[in-house]
Amino acid sequence: MPDHRHPLAHAHRRAAAAVLPLLFLLLAVPPPAAAAATPLESPSTSPYAELDAYVRDRMAATDTPGLSYAVVGPDGPLHQRSWGTDGRGDRVTADTPFLWGSVAKPIAATAVLALVEEGRLGLDDPVVDHLPRFRFGGAKHASHVTVRHLLAQTAGIPNSATLKVTDCLDADCPRPRDRVGALDDVTPLGPPGTAYAYSSANYLLLAAVVEAATGRPFADELRRTVLAPAGLPEAIADRDSARSRRLAPGHQLLWGIPAATADGVDDHGAAYGYAGGDLHDLAAFAAFQLRAAAPVLTPESVRLMRQESKDGSGYGLGWRVGGLDAPLGQAVWHTGGSPGYSAMVFLLPEKGVALVLQQNLYGLLQDDAIMQVGFGAARMLAGAPRPDADSPSATVHHLTVWTTTSLAVLLLAATTRALLLLRRPAHRHRWLPTALWCLLGALPLVALAALARAMPLTQAWSWVPDATLALYVASAAGAALSAVRLWLTLRSRRRDHPVA
Length: 500
Fold this sequence. Notes:
Elements: H1 9-24, H2 49-61, E1 66-73, E2 76-84, E3 98-99, H3 104-117, H4 127-130, H5 139-143, H6 147-152, H7 162-165, H8 201-214, H9 218-230, H10 239-244, E4 250-254, E5 257-262, E6 276-277, H11 279-290, H12 299-305, E7 320-321, E8 332-338, E9 341-348, E10 353-359, H13 367-381, H14 395-421, H15 431-454, H16 457-463, H17 465-496
Antiparallel strand pairs: 1-2, 1-10, 3-6, 4-5, 7-8, 8-9, 9-10
Helix pairs in contact: 1-14, 1-15, 2-13, 3-8, 3-9, 14-17, 15-17, 16-17
């Protein structure tokens, strides 16, 4: 099955894989018990009652604060429900805005295909024709990368390059064209078109190409070509629209408790992960796709978007296609996550229905658990029985956070004790215990270095704040512990062996 996770999930799981074995050499703390779920409204008596119950159960299992979902037909919602609260504590309704993460990609791909049909872009245009400074993989490789390769994620850009150009939440983030140079030193996975690798960098580049071809901000072209014709003209496409829609902070787990800490939008990220809107908006886009994106796209363009671009990739031009167990074998779908938010769209063209779902909770290490609600609900909508209760959990997140936190507490306690020993000059200190304490103190520093190789630490803070904070504290405490223990041992040695 093709990977459905957020483009950063691979990178951060690799970081966790590097960090956890180091930490588990010393201690492994079980995750805390799940908090009691907030009571939800009484069961619906609609034909979708079982679907509602499943969604609510998954919401409770993941401690998701707020969720909206809808079953959609070509003419709009057939059924919709909203539960919980947003990041300001207000009740979630169908009018509550969310961010959609990588669900932005099929929206952006629709915009690119619309420009192709207008004759302003070509699928086989070399990217360098629009972005002369594009030098990914060297001038020779870059000259063969086309718009089609970017749409299909076959430009050779590895997933590990994603964070070089994405998720800039600062007030003065560079425009897409000014981020292109960050890919110059990235080694391609292979010649363009030969290797599929999911990376949001492809879609950041598409935004730069669109801006170069049209001379307008990508968000403006997105509104003109897709959002307005599809019936969601007020959807979030930049920081200003997020502000005007009063987008509340999203939630991340902080030591197992959802907290509304994620409050940032990449002003130039609508092509890859920072589009959004309310349930009406997401349902409108799904209905538009069930109508074959008419009149914006021709049937041929829709066919290209929904067929596998490279054998075995499970990816078309902006959409994931098939790759799921029956009865979702023919589904056209995409999921997405941004800090604090997640969303899913599943099109079932043979049934003429779609499922859309958005949540105000997301963390890279909880990806499977959070996304399960969409996959399970889509399977039920396609005719499968309710999924088994044994569903993915956030165990990896809990183990990472609580192991790192426990190590930080242990090192803080050990450092405090070592500082107190400074007042006892007669106390003897041997080299072997000191060496062992120094090894323990170095452990979080090694883990921090491994994390830094996987992703910029500023972005680790955005995506997994609790584990990152605990690792910083453990690293500082470990360094202090090593320094104090070495000083104590040297002082003891000088006392025992004074210089003549």
